[in-house]
Amino acid sequence: MNHRTSAAPSPVTLDDVRGAQKMLSGIARVTGLEGSRYLSRLVGAPVHLKCENLQRTGSFKLRGAYIRIAGLLPEERAAGVVAASAGNHAQGVALAASLLGVKATVFMPKGAPLPKISATREYGAEVILHGQVVDETMAAAIAHAEETGAVFIHPFDHPDVITGQGTVGLEILEQCPEVRTIVVGVGGGGLAAGIAVAVKSLRPDVRIVGVQAEGAAAYPPSLAAGHPVAVPRPVTMADGIKVGRPGEVPFALVSELVDEVRTVGEDQLSAALLHCLERAKLVVEPAGASPVAALLADPRSFRGPVVAVLSGGNVDPVLLQGVLRHGMTVQGRYFAVRVRLDDRPGSLATLLSVLSEMDANVLDVSHRRTAPRLGPTEAEVEVHLETKGPEHCAEVHRALRAAGYAIAD
Questions:
Q1: What is the pLDDT at residue 3?
Q2: Distances (CA, A) of 332 to 275, 353, 358, 390, 395
Q3: 8 Å CB contact between 189 and 257
Q4: Global pTM?
Q5: Is Lyase a UniProt keyword of this protein (predicted)?
Q6: Is 1.10.1740.10 the CATH classification of the domain at 14-59+164-328?
Q7: Other CB atoms within 10 A of residue 126 CB
Q8: What is the DSSP letter of 111?
Q9: How many CB atoms lie within 10 A of CB 75?
């Protein structure tokens, strides 16, 4: 459904996106489209994954950054560019500026993952760590631009950036001309807006579904209000779509051209990331996995063939470890039980033998001998297990109870 009735001229046109596609030839990769048998079976129609996680710099951001910087006047290029980002936009601006011979300064939060900081420097940018959250980093970058005359490169709120991102949409139509639904993650809205301009101009019948993280979902209230509305404190593991307020330019396009914006929870993002790794053999960051999360949550609501855009793969290894563990927990493959037993030699070995017979993999064991709830001859053991799924979890519980163990949790 369309949310706007205004007939104001679009800030981005199909011709703009086609021109950007020519400019990006030899610069950005034409990323592959991979079929997913599992998702296709769930949806009941072909599902393809658009692998922007395999783009140069690990995300779609290079496309928009390059078009924006390439469009600067000579005197603007001479002044350099400045950006603020926790990761993907930083790397996209750094590489684009390097390819165009422009000096880039990138402000990043002090807590940004070290691999993303290192990659941004390796792409040729000067990195300045400032602030604890992106809003503070953004303010510092804008101040730097005003002081030095450098051009601030916004991550999503500029027509040239949206134009560059729209080339993803043209590639999808070329690679999957029979597509009927495109699912794309939404933060500020630049990627969704660009894809929508390109696709709706050529195939207005194609349904475009945006996906936001529940804890950073600014678009649903903004669409309801008819103007951008801020989420006071966005919270999500998906930092690539952790944006507190839609951009003015992409909001106008999304509200007019995107058919629906859905939300997914953290559990669903974790499960989707795990799915991409295990089933598709693709490393995808939580934001990039958001379209897959939406498909897994309600597969039969999508008209196929479907293309899900995996927008990025720059996931911090520390975060990846935690997200995978969380995803396994959501799927019933990793859980913890507290078991009360007699505090005497051999008790733990007996417990572990029961678990071994059930083919449950013990990951960690911790003992507690002093607690108000424990008797003088009792101990409590917390065991972290890896199982084969919810049914196996239930079997382990039954086996423990049958063996006479009191399960505290």
A1: 45
A2: 14, 22, 15, 5, 12
A3: no
A4: 0.83
A5: yes
A6: no
A7: 14
A8: T
A9: 8
Angle at 1 between CA 4 and CA 300, to 5 degrees: 155
Helix (H) or strand (E) segment spanning residue 107 = strand 104-108
What are the residue ranges of CATH 3.40.50.1100 in the chain? 14-59+164-328, 61-159
- Report the percent of the chain where pLDDT is more than 70: 93
Domain 332-407 CATH assignment equals 3.40.50.300: no
Residue 132 CB coordination number (10 Å): 10
Asked if residues 173 and 201 have their Cβ atoms less than 8 Å apart, the reply is no
Question: How far from the centroid of its chain's Cα atoms is residue 233's Cα?
Answer: 18
- What pairing do the DSSP bridges indicate for beta strands 334-342 and 406-407? antiparallel
pLDDT at 4: 41
Contact 76, 336 (CB under 8 A): no
Strand order of the β-sheet with 126-129 is: 126-129, 104-108, 81-84, 151-152
Q: Which residues of the chain have pLDDT under 50?
A: 1-7
Q: Is the dihedral of CA 189, 191, 195, 198 positive or negative?
A: positive
pLDDT, position 211: 98
The DSSP-derived string for 138-158 is: HHHHHHHHHHH-PEE--SSSS
Dist. CA 335–CA 238, nearest whole Å: 23
DSSP H or E run through 67: helix 61-70
What does the DSSP assignment read for 280-336?
A: S-----HHHHHHHHHHHHSGGGSPSSEEEEE-B----HHHHHHHHHHHHHHTTSEEE
Could you list the active site residues?
A: 61, 311
Q: How, if at all, do strands 378-386 and 361-368 pair?
A: antiparallel
- As a whole number of angstroms, the distance between CA 288 and CA 290 comes to 6
- Look at the block and give the residue holding tokens 């021109």: 19
pLDDT of amino acid 5: 40
Pick the CATH number of 61-159 from 3.30.70.860, 3.40.50.1100, 3.30.365.10, 3.50.50.60: 3.40.50.1100
Q: What is the pLDDT of residue 1?
A: 41
Q: What integer pLDDT is reported at residue 128 of this predicted model?
A: 95
| Amino acid at the residue 235 | V
Cα–Cα dist 145/149, whole Å: 5
Count CB atoms within 10 A of the CB of residue 207. 17
Tokens of 64: 């928009």
